Every structure is written in C-alpha cells, then in structure tokens.
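#dry-run=false #mode=assembly
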Amino acid sequence: MTVHRELEGRVRELLRTGPVRGLYAAMMRGLRGRAKAIVEMEDYEAFRSEARRIKERSIARLQELVDIFSKNAEERGARVYYARDGEEAVEIVARIVRNAGARLVAKSKSLTSEEIFLNERLEARGLEVVETDLGERIIQLAHERPSHLVFPAIHKTTEDVRSLFSAEAHREIGGDLQEIMGYIRQRLREVFLNADVGFNGANVGIAELGAVVLETNEGNGRMTSSIPRIQIVLIGVEKIVEKLEEALMLARAHAVAATGQRLTTYVSIMAGRSPMAGDASREMHIILLDNGRGRMLGDEVFREALYCIRCGACMNICAPYSVTGGHVFGHIYPGPIGIPWTANIHGLDKAAFAHLCISCGLCKEVCPISINIPLMISRVKALLAERYGYPYADRSMMMYERFGRVASQLAPLSNWALKSRAIRILLEKIVGLDRDAPIPEFRRETFLKRFSRVREEVSNPQSKVVLFLDFFANYCRPEIAENLVRTLQLAGVAVELPPQLTSGYPTISYGNWEEAKRYAARNIELLSSYVEQGYSIVSIEPTATYALKHVYPYLLRGDRRAEALSQATMEALQLLRRLVDEGLIAVKARTMKRCGIHIPCHQRPLSGAENVLALMRAAGLETSIIEDGMCCGMAGTFGMKHGPIGRGLSRAMGARLFELFKSSVVEVIVTESSVCTLHIKEGAEMEVLHPLDILYFEKPS
Amino acid sequence: MPTDMLVARFIERFKEQGGFVELVDSWDEALDSIAREARAAAAPVAVATCGEEHLEGIRARLGGVSRLVGPRAPPIEISRCGIGVTFPIAGIAETGSILELNYDDSDRLVSTLPPIHIAYLESRRLVGRLLEVAPILKQGLERGAFSATIISGPSRTADIELRQVIGVHGPHVVKILLEV
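#status=ok
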C-alpha cells in the first residue's frame, strides 16, 4: 500500500499546515455563481437533461463524428491529425513548429495540453512556450501545477505574483494589482504580436462545420488563435459533437456550471483559417487526441467520464478537495472527475487520490451532465484494491454489519468496552477505528426483534409499506423506527418488516463492487415480492434510500427488479408529510427550541430538506437550514477511520459547518443521517436530534 | 418576446456583465458618440470591415479628430489604437451578448486589441435565445472560413486572489451603441 501511505503523508502534512489558502472562497464563488445562474434559467433540469443527451449521442457516435469533423475541417483548409497518444501529439506539434522555422509558441490555457505534458516536452526540444492565461502564466513561472481548474493560481498571493513577475522582468513590479496587470498586459502583448505559432485547446469541436469552439474570459485565446501565422489546436476526441446547436448548448452549460456566467466572455467559433489583413497564407492545424479515450469508450463504467465538459463544478462542491486542493486531490486532472480520468490516462497508480473521495455523491448532483462520478470513483478504488489491496481501515469498515451484529448481541457489555480507552486504542491498532471517533451505543434488542411487539394489524389499510431499516435504526436507535411504525399504523398504513440486509453502501464507498452487488442482489431478492404486491419501500436513513434509489439500479444494470425497487422506494419523512397533507395524522413538536437543519449529502438528490422543513414548520417550529455548501465530512464510516485519510480529514472538512452552527441562533440541530449526527454533535458541541425525536404525530382532532 | 422586452433584457444583462449600452436613434447619432470617445481617447481608431455607408460615415466624422486604422489593418497597427469599432451581426438577449462574424482575423482584433471596444448594433438584430444565432452562423459559413465570437462584456480575470479585474488582454470597456 505504498501509494496509500504516500498519500497519507501528503494529507498529514496538509492538515498540519491548514487548507490551501483561498481555495474555499474560489469554490464558493463558483457554486454561488452557478446557483444564481440556474435560478435565471427557465428550466435548468430540462436543460441539464438535454446537455447529457448531447454528450450521450456524441460519445455513442464518436468515431463517426471524428471522421465527419476531419473531413469538414480539411475542406475548410485545416490540416487534421489524429494522435494516438501524448508523445505522438507532441511530435506533431514540434514538427509543425520546426517546419515553420519558429521558436516561440504563444499558448492559451489547455488542460488537454497539460495532460500530455506539452510545455515540458516542447521545451526539451528547444522551443519556448509562453502561457498567456494569467493564472497559467503565474503557475508556469512558479514551475508548479494548477491547484484549481478555473483559478489555477488561487494558492498564490498578490505578493507571490508580484515577486514572480519582478523576477521575470528583472525589475521591481509594484504590488498594486493594476500595476501587475499593466505589466502582464504589456509583456504578453509582445508575445502575441511576435509569436509565429499560436496554440490553443478547444472546448468543443463541431463535426458538421469542421469548427472548434474556444472559450476564454481574458481574451488571450482570441489573440493566440488569430495573430500568429500558424495556429495549432489540440482537442480531445471526446469533445466533438455533431451540430452547432449542441456546441452552443454545451458552451452555455460550461459557463453556468463553472462560474455562473451566462456564457464565458469570449466564445470563439473558428471554422477554417481566415486571412489576416488579406494575407491568406496562414495555417490551421487541428490535432485530435485519443490518448486512452478509445479505451475508455470501450469500458462500460469509465465511458461516462468522456461526457465531462471540464467545468470544474464537481471540484467546487467536493469537501475533501476543499481541504487538500488540486495538488493532492489530483494528478494533472484534479478533483472528483480527475480520478477516473487520471486512472485511465495517466495510470492507476497516479489515481491513488481516489482514497480521498468520501462518496458523498454531490459531484454527480452538481455536474451539468449528471455524470455518475461517485460510482466511477468507486470503480477506481476497486481497481486500486485489486492491485494494492484495501487499506486496512477500509477493509474493517466494510465489515460494519458484522460489527454491529456482534456489538448488539454483546450489549451492554460492548458499550462499556467501547468506552474503554484501552480497548479503543487496541481497536485503533487492529481495525483502524480511531480511538476518539464517536460511535453510537448498541442495543441488545434490535428493531428487527422488537418489531413483532410494535406491529399491529391494520384493517383496510390506506397503503402498505415495507420498512427498510439499515444499520442505525436497527442496532442503535430502534425507538426511531418504532416511532415511525406506530405513526404509520395510526394513519392506517400497514407496515411489514421482512428479513433484509443493510444497504451495503460502505462497500461502494471503499470500492468493493462484488460485495456491493451481493448486497444489492440480496436485498432485491428479499424485497421484490413486496414491490410486486404494491408495497412501497420506506427507508429511514438517507444513505440507504439513496442506495436503493440510485445505486442498485446502476450496479445491477438491466435488472428490472432493481428499477422497480428504486421506483417503489421513498423517504420516511416523505410519506409522513403526505399523510399529514392528506389529513390522516397531525404533526406536533416535543420542543419549541429553534432548530437548524443539516441536510445529509445523500438526501440532496432525494427531497433535500423539503419534507423535514415542511413537517417542522407545520409543527410550529422555528427552523432554518444551516449549510456550508458541502459535505459535513463524516461520510459514513470515513470519519471513524484512524489517520489523516479518515478522522483527520473528516474533522478538517467539518470545521466550517461546526462554526456555522456554533455562531447561529440555533438551539438544536436536526438531521436524518445517523452518522452526520455523531460527527456534528462532537464538532459543534450541540444537541443533534433526528426529526422523529422532535416530532410526534396524532390523529387529527 | 416583444421587441421592447428583448431590448430591455439585452441591456440589463449586458450591463450586469460589465458592459455599457448607449441608446442611439440613428447611425448619425452613433457617429457622434464614436467621435466623442475618439476625442477623449486621443488615439487612433481601428475599424472593422463594414458597409461603405458606415465606413464613409466614420471617415467623415473622425477626420481631424483621430487617425482611422483599417479595415483589415495589420495587428501591430490595431494594437496601437485606443478604440476599436465593430459591427456585430446579432445581439443575444438571453446571455447579454453580441455576435461578431469575421472573415478576416484583423477584424477580430479590432474588438480584441484596443482598450475600448465600441460596437454598433441595430435593435432589429437582437434575438431572444442563444440558439437563434445558429442559423445566422450557418448562413455566414457559406461565404467561407470564418471566426465568430460571442462577446459578453469586457475582458476579465479573477486569477489573483479572486479579485475581479476588468481588462486583461482584451478591452476594459465594451460599449454598445444600440440603435432603437
């Protein structure tokens, strides 16, 4: 597990020095901008679905579109090349530059060029490459890698930048931002006007026009693509779409998701090479890069990574990335989507930062193409495990169900033992459970055992449900499940509790696909007959609901029963709200404290806070949502693991949210997630309750 | 969408993005505005390819005020200009943008190199939605190789400490003379 240990060392160091400066602000700027831009759009979800369909059909026809693009671009006078890998692409670029007798290449920002280490490789061939995007130029002068996709030099201060430019200019550049801008404008203007070759990437290729689309905010891309006599465009083959309309849609999706702009300031569409001041002896070279994309196309899981439009929204919402930054949470491609890309393009060993992913799933929710990034990352973890084995704590955490069963059977002795410092230290050493991690108390009488006492025959039920318990409600808080069952029966709902496993989500989190599929298949087997009889599946734990609704159908693609189970699954509070709305029960509050809601990540693609808010407000409670826009950092058992890639990172991720709660007027925190409860209770040092601890239900008077 | 709403939305969104919009009644009034800006800038004015009427108008009005550069001037000359004047083929209300269609890259540079970019746009050229420019672009392509640019305000960056700076490599002022 050398790669894991190396990663641990880097995270440990980061936790010591603190989060990457400025990074969180940059991320929030992107997220807030996106949220504002979405509100302005008539139907963002419809737009998002259409953007996904565009990518689906483009990738399905990739080879055909490459051919159409090449033919049309060549008809417009461009020379088109197909590079199988990075070395081939670099060689093509070098040859073009050499043939032109050029030495200076003015380059605009291109992640694809970074993928193939273009700058270093051209410089090794004696060529001078000047990055012209401000952030990229700063990074180039500092000999570093970008730490954020949109703001590559976010970790640099104005003073850092001033020093870098002063060193380049061999004179003192003033510290004022305008003076720095004046320098960079003048310095790069010389480059634009004198470069023989302009190099740029492309955000989209349009097959029907043989055209490329380039988006920039600074305007440097317009200059590199227009002034030099020779223009070179490097574009990954996955970026080609068929139609202009599709390209425009993606340009819009890109801007909205990346920064919340309606469009990037300059969206240039270049179809062939235009003359300059009447001089038509100008060249356009387009290099289509494969470099592993063909392989990804043939992989049923990683194929979806080719839908990525490089907006960076997934990294803006990623809690571990907010602490570690792109230098640790990334190789060349940073952030969540960087994991499958790195594994496929640069090699599995470079994708070990997959272990930093906490499987909160928010990257999928924020992605403008709805790419299932979390499950691709889980797959990368599975491949890492095949090669290197599972980190020992991960292996232990995946045995959570067995642990719960034993702890429950041995309660209260197990609870006493789990409070013993000596035993916790031993557990930390043996299974990787951090000695300080909060863990719940276990009940000897699980809800599965208790149910027969709680269950009542409901004559002429208004509906029938199966309760899906998951871990916590069964082993640790059976009273929550009991509250729910009694309330449902009061409302005339018949409740059944057939044998079942927990959702198995930790096996997804840590990348054990075989085990995850076994959980899914077994639960489907146990529950499907009920679904066929018209039962709804009601789940208390957001992660369990998420697994049933969104993960099982993915794992067992093609299994109709998985789809049916997904359709039949609903959240407990969703059902309770419906029953309240239908007048079958009335909701009351046990306390009148001011409540602050924490929305668990896996609840966001479900109802968000909609149901809990409605019920709590109906009960007369003063309630608000408190959030920092990201995961609280607990992420199931992640925060229980010993070490920097565990409790260390988990606490750092939660720090912002803890402070928000502490500084609010809230008296009690309410959340439906069991593990978030443990984490926030410890971090915010406040009372944290489940909604069913606060709410109770009666027959309407 | 009714024209007045289209105009209002376009203006609102373009301004939100840091651009300026001046309403003019006629090309003649637009010329007055260009001349005023040229006088204030005290620098040569670059002009993009346009109809003879527009070019003659600019020549006549700027005579004695500023040196006129172009159309189709070399980059170095355009880079010495204080103002670039272009003639977008469309305006897009949805995104607060203008669309420029160029068959010579020197025309692109007119809206790129000078610090002030002035675009003359007739309101009849406004469209509601971004996708409505697709047929315009496709038609434009029939004339040969082109570069089209959708411009949504001045050049900008927030690369240093997220502090927004307007006018990096491109213009720091983009002003639309919108004829209504």
